Amino acid sequence: MTEWYKEDLAYIHDVGHADFALESAPGILEILDQSRIPESLVVDLGCGSGLWARELVDTGYRVLGIDISEAMVEISRRRVPEAEFRVGSLFDADIPPCAAVTAISEVLNYLFDEEPGGLIPFFRRVYEALVPGGVFVFDVLGPGQVPPGATARGLREGEDWAVISEREEDAERGTMTRRIVSFRKVGEHYRRDEEIHRVRLYKPVEISGLLRRVGFGVRTMRSYGSYPLAEGHAAFVARKPA
Questions:
Q1: Which residues sit opposite 136 in a β-bridge?
Q2: Which of 19, 118, 167, 188 is the most exposed, having the fewest neighbouring CB atoms within 10 Å of its CB?
Q3: Distance CA 24, CA 34 (A)
């Protein structure tokens, strides 16, 4: 099992952090509809616990979800038995021919693994997998998440869980480190676990430039439909020419 989004944090993310996937879903479905994407295969990279996959299947799409976390994939398979899910890195997983690719909730930022040569080889693989006129919809975090020299701390809790987090940004390296301590109630007691996540922060203009080099037409957004993204969080619709 990977060291990221293990059983307890996967559970907590699913029950306590579902808002982004559910609130952004109508806007992304509208993008697919406006792009005249047929109700065929959508590949969801970094599929998490299958919340977005559930929305896609309910709308009539076929879905292949890929995630590096075995625990997340287990939840996805229970939630969306009609879809196919695979455990794997989005950077080396096979992307079959499809009408759309999605990577929702900053999954491209994570440094669980890195694509040799940066994002260009990955964007090329997505471009080659898409049918003419297909779209790649995703979002990324940019620099400025934490003030220089500061540590941002947070606490979230639910009925049977709590999460304490710390975030520090390295502006010189363009990265941010999250230290996440989780507590989940199992029987009469709480079980403690800890994970450290590193993410690379991308400027929107940098991402747009890379996508255009590959051949995509690009639109940058500050929201998914009526659902606004936070400061320093940008979304992209990258279209392969018809």
A1: 101, 238
A2: 188
A3: 16
Q: pLDDT digits over 38-48, tens only?
A: 879 999 999 99
Token code pair at residue 148? 């220089």
Q: How far apart are CA 115 and CA 121, in angstroms?
A: 7
The burial of 181, by beta-carbon neighbours within 10 Å (0-12 exposed, 13-18 middle, 19 or more buried), is given as: middle
Angle, helix 204-214 to helix 119-129, in steps of 10 degrees: 50
pLDDT tens, residue by residue, 159-199: 999 999 999 999 999 999 999 999 999 999 999 999 999 99
Contact 237, 222 (CB under 8 A): no
- For residue 138, is it left (φ>0), alpha (ψ between -120 and 50) or beta? beta
**Range(s) within the chain of domains with CATH label 2.20.25.110:** 152-200
- Are the C-beta atoms of 205 and 191 separated by less than 8 Å? no
Every domain range in the chain assigned CATH 3.40.50.150:
7-142+202-239
CATH superfamily of 7-142+202-239: Vaccinia Virus protein VP39 (3.40.50.150)
> With a threshold of 0.90, does the pTM exceed it?
yes
Q: Residues with Cβ < 8 Å from 192, sequence gap 6 or more?
A: 181, 182, 183
Give the Cα separation of 119 and 195 in Å (integer): 25
Residue range 152-200 in CATH 2.70.70.10: no
pLDDT in tens, 106-156: 999 999 876 656 899 999 999 999 999 999 999 999 999 999 999 999 999
